[in-house]
Design brief:
By secondary structure, the protein is of the alpha+beta class. 31% of the residues lie in helices and 38% in strands. The chain has four helices and six strands; from the N terminus they run ααββαββαββ. The chain has a six-stranded antiparallel beta sheet with strand order 1-2-4-5-6-3. Strand 5 and strand 6 form a beta hairpin. The longest helix is centred in the middle third of the chain and has 20 residues. It is globular, with a radius of gyration of 15 Å.
Length: 146
């Protein structure tokens, strides 16, 4: 188990969803969530809250991967989201840092001011590869205090 998976498993609400970190690379992560009856709504599709939690988990992994090496932590400031169709089955969230982000400039800003901002885009797909959710999560980065 990776250190990041252990961290996710230590967060009771995230652990309850049984999400699994499949890919973690600089600027990118893939997190999956199993199909479970207790994650479905009265209609039998995946509950919007479970979908949101999956998306925010994947985005948080990416944002934390930027902030932690700089000595920072993240705070979710805003999210723009769109549910595009009913979700059924196990879901896969692919998150990536906004391609317009200048990593070197962000690191310089953070080193000087102890703060920064970044956006992470997330797409969630169902087992058939259909997109069921698209969103952008905006994080504030802050310097950790010793």
């Amino acid at each position: 188990m990776s250190d990041k998976q252990a961290l996710l498993d230590s967060i009771a609400y995230v652990a309850w969803h049984r999400q699994e970190l499949r890919v973690e690379e600089p600027g990118r992560a893939v997190v999956v969530q199993p199909d479970r009856a207790d994650l479905r709504n009265y209609f039998g599709t995946v509950h919007a809250g479970a979908i949101y939690t999956l998306a925010e988990t994947a985005a948080g992994v990416v944002a934390d991967g930027v902030a932690r090496p700089l000595g920072g932590f993240i705070l979710l400031g805003a999210a723009e989201l769109r549910y595009t169709r009913r979700a059924e089955g196990a879901l896969e969230a692919a998150a990536r840092i906004d391609p317009g982000t200048d990593g070197a400039a962000l690191a310089r800003e953070f080193a000087g001011a102890g703060r920064g901002a970044l956006a992470v885009a997330v797409a969630i797909r169902d087992p058939g590869g259909e997109t069921v959710f698209e969103g952008t999560f905006h994080y504030a980065m802050r310097r950790r205090r010793q």
